[in-house]
Write a sequence for this structure.
């Protein structure tokens, strides 16, 4: 009796879906979201472009993006993957947990950007390390609870584990003093969190509006 | 014996740390002789005891029953009754303001039987079912911390969602069952069909919401102690949804954007509760009340004058009117900032309500910096076509783009204002390409607001009633259709969207600010050339020393 080979990871779908959740992105960002190195991601992007599922635009905001056909193909394939992994209950539960944490995450991003001084909301100029440390403490607390959101679906769908890693990395960099990793960078906590939100909606087929 | 529950009246004793700020404000309204729905408050001490012991303190259930009987006597209605049913609102109210952090439940007491009775009494089954659905949604959301609105989604009780042509009543009935099912699924218990048990459950839920992680985080960030607890305010419901002569709104005694005297705010006819604050529905300018319900308008204007006299400051109220009768639900000082704070302080001193010294102390030196942020000029108010919440200060002028693709394309030819229902990661390019951002949904902590601030783009979010037609390339708001490419100006401080390119007040010192700073120099005796915040700071230093 031979052991069955594990199914080859579907790198094409990983890249396609990364674009679905990130929106238009450069190769490096797609690679990070898909868990591939940039050369492999680019090769997949080119194949997908040949199939008419993604396009590349030039100009100052140029980036890879999905075509309508790419969006439809992603919806179909991500649903098939969800059902074949029997992961719908786990993803639904994750989404419900996510919705409880989401307002708090947004509160925290807001507190990071604005602070109340004498009753007036003022732009946080990050000149008060004690205040920033207090906000980052709360991020760390939230992050521990957010781990549970990704853990259950990650068992069946490994990409949810990548969110866990990317969120942890963004927070670690912010705590280490790279403040743009809270809400300003494309690899910031807020950006990765928003991708996770989009992924949960896309995976469950829930329309945003 | 400690009493956990106090009826709300002009005679209610107790400080804000025991009654909570909301109840404390309602007692003040009673003392001013203003119309407040009858109610009672469960103290913060009861909350602390609940949090310590994990259950309602002994005697509280009896006190709730007794207080509810008092409400029945005051209103001539029966709690959970099968005739003339009494419904109540259950709101959190801590000693310090924690807006939006804790639970609120409206229309409590509308058991299935009581809702039937309300339908029979009003002859309006849709109204009664809608009220019961709002109750169950509010309680379910409070119990789970999630937004449960009864929309029939995946899963759910068998046999529901299968009657698309069943009409409005069938839809409401299905949504009610969906919410009840969601509560059983998530909480492992049913919502009791007994009004008194519902009230106990709601009080527990509000108390427990003090410990919700989001509330804890808010307190950590704002330096509020974790051991204060919240009070719970229970009041007889007034229904803004009752009929065409009902509604709800918020009002300031002066314009919070400019400080100009006169009632200012928003009203929603045929709605109740949080609808105005949530931004989900298009509000009308408060002035509309003057035409449609002149008696309500007159009573409201009078109330604002009296409350302002009490606080000796601009004030804010939340109100509901039912069948043409005004009720006040909350009142507090206006807490204006920036140029508006300066103008109110100067005007109040001119009116003799406060001294010039008090006026100076009303404005923090930081606020003067905000007073310098560019704003759409007050003279250009006629050009304002929509209002939302200012999420990132500053003024942006640009042509409307309704999609991220259009924003990127159009930005090559000049500045663009991106207008979206709400934003998602897919909009990041458009947000980066745009000079300003407008969204229909979301508050100051929404995705769009967070990104706008990260990018330093002026933003207005939560513009109620704004619809974005991406297929048709147009946005609709306040009865107007604005095509893609139309020139608009947005003010990310006041949350205004104006047509064209109205004049912008670029932080020039107005007459109020000039006089205000002259007063500051009079106090400090220093007339040397210095920054504005410094001039005010010097006056504060003298005034604080002189204070007894």
């Amino acid at each position: 009796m031979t052991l069955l080979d594990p199914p080859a990871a579907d790198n094409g779908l990983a890249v396609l879906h990364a674009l679905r959740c990130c929106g238009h992105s450069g190769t490096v960002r797609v690679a990070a979201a898909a868990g591939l190195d940039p050369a492999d991601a680019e090769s997949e992007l080119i194949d997908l472009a040949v199939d008419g599922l993604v396009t590349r635009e030039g100009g100052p905001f140029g980036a890879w993006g999905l075509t309508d056909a790419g969006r439809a193909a992603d919806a179909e394939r991500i649903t098939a993957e969800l059902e074949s992994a029997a992961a719908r209950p786990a993803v639904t539960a994750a989404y419900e947990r996510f919705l409880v944490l989401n307002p708090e995450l947004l509160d925290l991003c807001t507190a990071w950007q604005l602070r109340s001084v004498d009753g007036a909301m003022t732009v946080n100029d990050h000149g008060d390390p004690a205040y920033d440390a207090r906000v980052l403490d709360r991020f760390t607390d939230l992050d521990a609870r957010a781990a549970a959101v990704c853990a259950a679906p990650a068992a069946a769908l490994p990409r949810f584990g990548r969110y866990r890693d990317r969120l942890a990395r963004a927070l670690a960099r912010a705590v280490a003093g790279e403040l743009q990793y809270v809400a300003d960078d494309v690899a910031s906590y807020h950006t990765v969190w928003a991708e996770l939100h989009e992924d949960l909606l896309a995976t469950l087929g829930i329309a945003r509006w | 014996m400690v009493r956990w529950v106090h009826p709300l009246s002009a005679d209610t004793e107790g400080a804000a740390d025991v009654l909570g700020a909301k109840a404390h404000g309602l007692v003040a309204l009673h003392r001013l002789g203003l119309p407040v729905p009858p109610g009672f408050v469960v103290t913060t001490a009861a909350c602390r005891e609940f949090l310590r012991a994990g259950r309602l303190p002994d005697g509280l259930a009896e006190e709730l029953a007794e207080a509810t009987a008092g409400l029945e006597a005051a209103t001539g209605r029966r709690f959970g009754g099968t005739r003339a049913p009494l419904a109540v609102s259950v709101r959190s109210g801590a000693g310090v303001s924690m807006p939006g952090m804790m639970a609120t439940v409206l229309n409590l007491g509308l058991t299935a039987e009581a809702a039937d009775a309300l339908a029979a009494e009003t002859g309006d089954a849709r109204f009664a079912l809608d009220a019961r659905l709002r109750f169950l949604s509010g309680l379910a959301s409070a119990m789970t911390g999630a937004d449960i609105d009864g929309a029939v989604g995946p899963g759910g009780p068998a046999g529901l969602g299968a009657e698309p042509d069943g009409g409005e009543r069938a839809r409401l009935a299905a949504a009610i069952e969906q919410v009840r099912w969601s509560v059983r699924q998530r909480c492992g218990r049913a919502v009791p069909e007994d009004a008194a048990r519902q009230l106990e459950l709601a009080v527990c839920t509000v108390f427990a919401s003090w410990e919700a992680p989001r509330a804890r985080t808010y307190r950590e960030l704002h330096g509020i102690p974790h051991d204060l607890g919240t009070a719970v305010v229970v009041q007889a419901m007034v229904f803004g949804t009752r009929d065409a002569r009902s509604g709800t709104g918020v009002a300031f005694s002066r314009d919070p954007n400019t400080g100009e005297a006169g009632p200012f705010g928003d009203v929603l006819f045929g709605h109740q509760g949080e609808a105005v604050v949530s931004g989900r529905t298009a509000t009308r300018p408060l002035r509309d009340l003057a035409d449609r319900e002149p008696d309500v308008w007159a009573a409201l204007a009078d109330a604002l004058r009296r409350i302002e006299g009490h606080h000796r400051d601009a004030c804010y109220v939340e109100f509901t009117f039912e069948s043409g009768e005004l009720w006040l639900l909350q009142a507090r000082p206006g807490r204006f900032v920036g140029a508006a704070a300066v103008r109110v302080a100067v005007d109040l001193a001119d009116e003799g309500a406060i001294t010039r010294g008090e006026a100076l102390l009303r404005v923090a030196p930081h606020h003067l910096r905000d007073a310098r942020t560019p704003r759409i000029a007050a003279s250009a108010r006629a050009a304002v076509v929509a209002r939302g919440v200012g999420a990132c200060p500053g003024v942006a002028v640009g042509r409307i783009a309704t999609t991220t693709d259009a924003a990127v394309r159009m930005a090559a030819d000049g500045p663009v204002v991106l207008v979206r229902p709400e934003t998602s990661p897919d909009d990041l390019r458009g947000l980066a390409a745009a000079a300003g951002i407008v969204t229909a949904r979301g508050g100051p902590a929404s995705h769009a607001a967070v990104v706008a601030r990260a990018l330093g783009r002026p933003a207005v979010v939560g513009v109620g009633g704004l619809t974005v037609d991406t297929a048709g390339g147009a946005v609709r708001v306040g009865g107007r259709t604005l095509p893609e490419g139309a020139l608009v100006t947005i003010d990310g401080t006041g949350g205004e969207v104006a047509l064209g390119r109205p004049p912008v007040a670029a932080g020039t010192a107005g007459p109020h600010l000039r006089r205000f700073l002259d007063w500051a120099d009079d106090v400090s005796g220093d007339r040397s050339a210095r920054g504005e915040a410094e001039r005010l700071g010097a006056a504060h230093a003298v005034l604080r020393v002189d204070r007894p």
Observations:
- The CA atoms of residues 1 and 59 of chain B lie 10 Å apart.
- Chain B is about 40% helix and 20% strand.
- Chain B has four domains: 5-236, 247-333, 338-372+508-546, 375-505.
